Amino acid sequence: MKETLLKVWDHLEEFFLIPSLIISTGLIFFQVIMRYVFHHSLSWSEEVVRYLYVWQTWVGVSYAARNGSHLRITMLKDRLPEKGQKWLEVFVSIVWVGFAVFIMIQGLSAVHAIASFGQKSAALRIPMQICYMSIPVGMVLMSIRLIERTIKSLRKSEGGAAE
Amino acid sequence: MNIALLFGVFFVLVMLSVPIGVSLGVATSLTIVLTSNIGPIMVAQKAFTGLDSFTLIAIPFFMLAGNLMALGGIARRIVNMADAAVGKFTGGLGMATIIGCMFFAAISGSGPATVTAMGSIMLPEMEKRGYDKGFATGLTATAGTIGVIIPPSIPFVIYGVASGTSVGDLFKAGFIPGILIGIALMIVCYFISKKQGYKGSDHRQDGEKSLWKTFLDSLPALMAPVIILGGIYGGIFTPTEAAVVATVYSLIVGKFVYHELTWKIVLESYRSTADMNGFTGLALGFSMSFAAYLAMEQIPSKVASVLLGAISSEWALILLIIVILLIVGCFVDNISSCLILTPVFLPIITGIGMSPVHFGIMMTVALAIGFVTPPYGVNLFVASAVAKLKIEVISKAAIPFILAMLVCLLLIAFIEPISMLLVWVL
């Protein structure tokens, strides 16, 4: 049970990202077919795909943090000795998580503001706060992934030193 | 003062290996909180609204389509056809690699993806036929840059969104420059091959004797660029729709025509697309906040008026911008540098009457050269991984090709019709 849960947690983002990307593929293709074969332009498909994309991006930000694939310039870092690299990595994680928490707070106030205006999307009348929620959710997930990674790398290097 | 703070914080954080997106976000947030009365909620809001764009969705799908075509046998068929056409000439395999890159570029929008697709097939072949490994890898790494110049192109989508220019126009404008660079690289390849004695051969990679059979086998692969570019140029679909049609097409051809795609490969391609979407998204989102702040403080127009006042010659200004782009391209990835520099340069180039579409092509070519210049060059990284060769060796071998690209860059920058002709006539 615990193992299954851990496995689910490890692939958490994928459960949203992959099905939603497949849905987006299908929807846009369907939109092209409808327009060119059935001469009927869909008004809602583009909007659905757009908001899915926004969610895919902010959840993807966490997924990329889990995979360690964010765009970074490591030119100077690579020249540091191992110990220096380790502490620089801790510093980067602190800045990164601190920023994520800051954006989460700003994102939540944006959600709050949008909700009180009652702003809705143009075609489907989706309450816009549902879309804006992607930012705080993504930031929380990303922070957890970052802390996870940093602890793991610290443990690993400690273990290495003890051997 | 606020400009110094903004760029200072950004530069220091980037150098400390903080992710580009985070560095942009922290620099913008700090500057806003410390020097202005703008609410910091704006940083989150712009990061959201900036990504709420149907055009940007083209990026993950062009990535996905490129992946599926590389793994589903389409890339292989393109190479077979190119080999059949030019393989028998001096340096023929090298030229076939360049032609392969040009065709693959018309399907994929990414430089490194083009290098991986073409390199994994062509490098072993060239080695087998006595090409120097460094030369072959340097050639493939440089030719891979055509991946972002011949449309579709991910950098064009990003530039289009960052500058408010039509992505369709950029896709038209990139076509001739891409062909020009391909021809220039082939000329360099021919002369080096002649000197080194890399002879052509009638032996073909697919073992076919008849050109007709190779053509038939590669026809579904060759149709891919026709569908994608034809669809966009003919106004049948938007760039984003084209990317999705390309994805579905490559899925069908790879799975049911060539029988080379397994569902496992498809799933893996989706996974790496989701990942790529995440790391570009972070940089994209916060560069939107960064650019919005620049605009609010009218920083780009201030920079423009200083530069335009100091340098009166248009040529000198364009050359200065090119030099800056080439230097930045050595150190920073092209997505980030395009996002950061576009809002700064745009008022300058419109100030001297250059078209933003023309400038977008020039900028993309200049930053594409950065793909093959160390220390940070994505094409060098993937080429080094594919060939198992040191980056220094590859970048040294790439020098003659890079020089040819520089000549093309100057031609593209100063002869407007090279990029604008198709925009005018189509």
Short account of what is shown:
Chain A has helices spanning 2-10, 12-37, 45-67, 82-117, 128-132, 134-162. With 163 residues, chain A is mainly alpha-helical.
Q: What is the CA-atom radius of gyration of chain A, in angstroms?
A: 20 Å
- Residue fraction in strands of chain A: under 5%
User: Assembly type of the shown chains?
Assistant: heterodimer
Main sheet of chain A? none
Into which percent range does the helicity of residues of chain B fall?
A: over 70%
Report low-confidence residues of chain B grouped into runs of 5 or more: none
- Summarize the largest interface: chains and residue counts: A-B, 56 and 60 residues
Order of helices and strands of chain B: HHHHHHHHHHHHHHHHHHHHHH
Calculate the mean pLDDT score of chain A and round it.
Answer: 86
Query: Which segments of chain A are poorly predicted (pLDDT under 50) over 5 or more consecutive residues?
Result: none
Mean pLDDT of chain B: 88
Q: Number of helical runs of chain A?
A: 6
Q: Residue share in helices of chain A?
A: over 70%
Structural class of chain A: mainly alpha
Question: Can you give keywords for this protein?
Answer:
heterodimer; A: 163 residues; mainly alpha; 0% strand; B: 426 residues; 22 helices
Commentary on this structure:
- The complex is a heterodimer of chains A (163) and B (426).
- Chain A has helices at 2-10, 12-37, 45-67, 82-117, 128-132, 134-162.
- Chain A has 163 residues and is mainly α.
- In chain A, helix 2 runs antiparallel to helix 3, helix 3 runs parallel beside helix 6 and helix 4 packs antiparallel against helix 6.
- The model of chain A has no long low-confidence stretch (mean pLDDT 86).
- The interface between A and B is large, with 56 and 60 residues.
